[in-house]
Design a protein that fits this description.
- By secondary structure, the protein is α+β, with helices and mostly antiparallel strands.
- 38% of the residues lie in helices and 28% in strands.
- It has helices at 3-17, 46-62, 93-99, 101-104; strands at residues 21-27, 37-43, 69-71, 78-82, 86-92, 109-111.
- Strands 3-4-5-2-1-6 form a six-stranded mixed beta sheet.
- β4 (78-82) and β5 (86-92) form a beta hairpin.
- The two termini are 14 Å apart.
């Protein structure tokens, strides 16, 4: 399994385990050079959003992957975690509806797990 797909699977499993809502994986390799995949999910509230990020980060770092950057943790309405090959976006419901990344990245391919 290629490295970026292994990373996607680790995050997907962590998010699913912690009951993230509406997990979407978008393959953006053919439309952007910033990453291979975006993972987008929704948390029920600030604490849930932060827990989803914490568990995803732990799963990736335990597997030996290093995070490049994280933004938005303190606010907790949209947290972005950049691991190079993948970028994880965890939103609260209001922010996810407002920013609508799936529409912005509609030229990417939806991946199912």
């Amino acid at each position: 399994m290629e490295q970026s797909l292994k990373m996607v699977k680790l995050v997907y499993d962590a998010l699913d385990k912690k009951l993230a809502e509406d997990i979407q994986i978008i393959d953006i390799r053919k439309v952007s050079v910033i990453a291979d995949y975006f993972i987008i999910a929704t948390g029920k509230n600030k604490n849930h959003v932060q827990t989803l990020i914490d568990d995803s980060q732990e799963a990736l770092e335990t597997a030996g992957f290093k995070m490049r950057e994280m933004e938005g943790y303190r606010n907790g309405s949209w947290i972005l975690m950049d691991f190079g090959d993948i970028v994880v976006h965890i939103f609260d419901e209001e922010s996810r509806n407002f920013y609508d990344l799936e529409r912005i990245w509609k030229d990417g391919k939806i991946v199912t797990m």
